[in-house]
């Protein structure tokens, strides 16, 4: 009787929380978030205007995260030419984002997501206090164009620029 009860409890718990699974063609969940400089951005402000790279990373000022962010920084002119904005998202507070931005001279916004609203809306797994390294390429139409769940921080910006070129060629 007790094993059956435990099984029923586990089934109830596991069905209460369904992870979000976004795939290409899905509408990108809208959000409004505070950015590094204290202002706010909303995803819907870019619909019909720009592609959006929404990349999630574990922690400011750590090895892989710094490599990835610096590649996005160094490639900003190519993103602008491709009419694409880049947003980095982690669970770190604004103070950490400011330090990271200043230390590595980042030239794109980092979004504050200490409450995990964006992370959860996009179904990004969290390990402790760290989001997994996932990225969503969102087209000008506001739909998910591509989901990256296995990201190599060293090569990711280059991979995205290639995919953005293909996306822009389709539209």
Terminal CA distance reads: 60 Å
How many DSSP H or I helices?
A: 6
Oligomeric state of the chains in view: single chain
Unreliable sequence segments: 3-17
CATH topology: Glutaredoxin
Summarize the structure.
By secondary structure, the protein is of the alpha/beta class. Helices cover 37% and strands 20% of the residues.
Task: Fill in the keyword field for this structure.
Glutaredoxin; five-stranded mixed sheet; disordered N terminus; alpha/beta; single chain
Plain-language structure description:
- With 171 residues, the chain is α/β, with parallel strands linked by helices.
- Helices cover 37% and strands 20% of the residues.
- The strands form 3 sheets. Strands 5-4-3-8-9 form a 5-stranded mixed beta sheet.
- The termini are far apart.
- Residues 3-17 have low confidence and may be disordered.
Secondary-structure map:
Elements: H1 2-16, E1 32-34, E2 40-42, E3 51-56, H2 63-74, H3 76-81, E4 84-90, H4 94-103, E5 110-112, H5 117-121, E6 126-127, E7 130-131, E8 135-138, E9 144-148, H6 156-170
Parallel strand pairs: 3-4, 4-5
Antiparallel strand pairs: 1-2, 3-8, 6-7, 8-9
């Amino acid at each position: 009787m007790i094993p059956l009860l435990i099984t029923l409890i586990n089934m109830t718990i596991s069905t209460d929380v369904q992870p979000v699974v976004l795939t290409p063609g899905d509408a990108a969940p809208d959000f409004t978030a505070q950015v590094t400089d204290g202002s706010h951005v909303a995803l819907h402000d870019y619909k019909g205007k720009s592609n959006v790279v929404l990349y999630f990373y574990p922690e400011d000022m750590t090895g892989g995260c710094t490599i990835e962010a610096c590649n996005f920084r160094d490639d900003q002119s190519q993103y602008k030419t491709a009419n694409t904005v880049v947003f980095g998202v982690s669970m770190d507070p604004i103070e950490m984002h400011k330090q990271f931005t200043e230390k590595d001279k980042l030239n794109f916004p980092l979004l504050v997501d200490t409450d995990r609203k964006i992370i959860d809306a996009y179904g990004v797994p969290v390990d402790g206090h760290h989001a997994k390294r996932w990225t969503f390429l969102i087209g000008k139409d506001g739909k998910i164009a591509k989901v990256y769940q296995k990201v190599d921080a060293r090569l990711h910006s280059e991979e995205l620029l290639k995919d953005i070129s293909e996306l822009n060629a389709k539209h």
